[in-house]
Design a protein that fits this description.
four-stranded antiparallel beta sheet; 385 residues; 17 strands; alpha+beta; globular; Alpha-Beta Plaits
Length: 385
């Protein structure tokens, strides 16, 4: 069964609270630091500590980094992530979240996203927070992300631009673009930061799913107000055993756009949560060759997927229909080979193990590092599983 996470944001969310919650459910700080070292950025470290917020105990993530004298632009952050040796999916999702953040800041302050000075959220600790959460979810084998309605707090917050109303304008824009539900609250202070909002907007579906619970963890915020426990709660579990799903199939015919642009669109659809994306050659009016671009998406992501297709392609219309699909139970595991660890995905149906398949990225890495044919790596893994 697919492993999922639910961010229960009853007291808000920030980047360090999300990171602390993942550590609280068992994410190894050492393993996460090893992943983040792939960013190739010096002069930082990561640690955690147990603590209390009012009457709830949890874990606080601590990023140790020097004060940044210069502010980064989106291009600077993109260069760091793209030059890293992180898993391609972790790269894509991290870049997507930072792009959303830049677009929000740019919209609020009236400048193009590329010209935004990231200020606090471009500092090294925020890069570690965002990439750390994305990489941490991958290390925990999380395949789907869900979130609760969010409180928004009240008052004013001091930022690089000066005093800003709470919720901060960039936070509110991000939640608006994601269609996030909010909850009534009388909380004082900033409870959802721009970084926290960007994480939710970039990864989460806003609903509480049916799930078989495995773990619950608490990430501590920096403040300890008297009116509430300042914690982020996460629930981790498996998708409830129901093989029949009803995703939405989106399709459009295109005959006037370069193939590389359509490939980019397909990549972006997968990044925002499409279950599958494919392209198929067709013959259109007057004998013109064309392409069917198709995306299978969860119902909650339909609007976001439609908006992306409209924005990234030349289409004037998109067909949609509800389809049904049976889904096998899946389990992520790791095996030890003579060349190192390889992740595999095991397949089960009605409780019967139907075998497993290795992750392409791990096999390709081994083939490149050791100069051996990719097919031999697959053969070696098949002998083990």
């Amino acid at each position: 069964m697919a492993r999922i996470i639910y961010f229960d944001c009853f007291s808000g969310i920030s980047g360090d609270m999300a990171l602390g919650a993942l550590i609280d459910v068992g994410l190894s700080v050492e393993a996460l630091q090893a992943e983040l070292e792939k960013l190739g950025v010096p002069d930082w470290s990561l640690s955690s500590e147990r603590g209390m917020r009012r009457y709830i105990s949890g874990t606080r993530a601590l990023v140790h980094a020097p004060e940044q004298e210069t502010h980064r632009h989106l291009a600077d952050v993109q260069a760091i992530i793209e030059a890293s040796t992180l898993d391609p999916i972790v790269k894509q999702r991290s870049l997507h979240i930072f792009t959303l953040l830049a677009e929000a800041e740019g919209r609020v302050h009236g400048v193009p996203a590329e010209q935004v000075h990231f200020h606090e959220v471009g500092a090294l600790d925020a890069i570690v927070d965002i990439v750390g959460v994305v990489a941490g979810l991958a290390l925990l084998g999380i395949e789907q992300v869900y979130a609760s309605p969010v409180p928004l707090g009240s008052g004013w917050v001091r930022a690089a631009h000066g005093a800003l109303p709470i919720p901060a304008p960039a936070t509110l824009y991000l939640l608006t673009q994601a269609g996030a539900p909010t909850q009534a609250d009388q909380l004082q202070g900033e409870v959802v930061t721009p970084t926290g909002a960007a994480l939710l907007a970039g990864m989460a579906e806003f609903r509480r799913p049916a799930m078989q619970l495995e773990q619950v963890g608490y990430g501590l915020g920096g403040r300890d107000p008297e009116d509430r426990p300042n914690v982020l709660r996460v629930w981790i579990g498996q998708v409830a055993n129901n093989s029949l799903q009803q995703p939405v199939l989106l399709e459009t015919n295109i005959d006037d756009q370069p193939a590389e642009q359509l490939a980019y669109t397909a990549e972006q659809l997968l990044t925002v949560g499409a279950l599958d994306v494919w392209m198929q050659p067709i013959q259109m009016k007057k004998g013109r060759p064309g392409i069917v671009l198709a995306a299978l998406v969860p119902p909650a992501l339909e609007d976001a997927a439609v908006a992306m297709i409209m924005r990234e392609t030349t289409t004037l219309g998109i067909r949609r229909r509800i389809v049904e699909r049976h889904v096998c139970e899946r389990e992520l595991a790791q095996i030890e080979t003579e060349y190192g660890i390889v992740r595999i995905k095991r397949k089960r149906w009605a409780g019967v193990d139907l075998g497993g398949a290795p992750e392409y990225e791990d096999c390709a890495r081994i083939a490149r590092e050791h100069g051996i044919p990719l097919r031999e790596v697959y053969r070696m893994v098949a002998d083990v599983i």
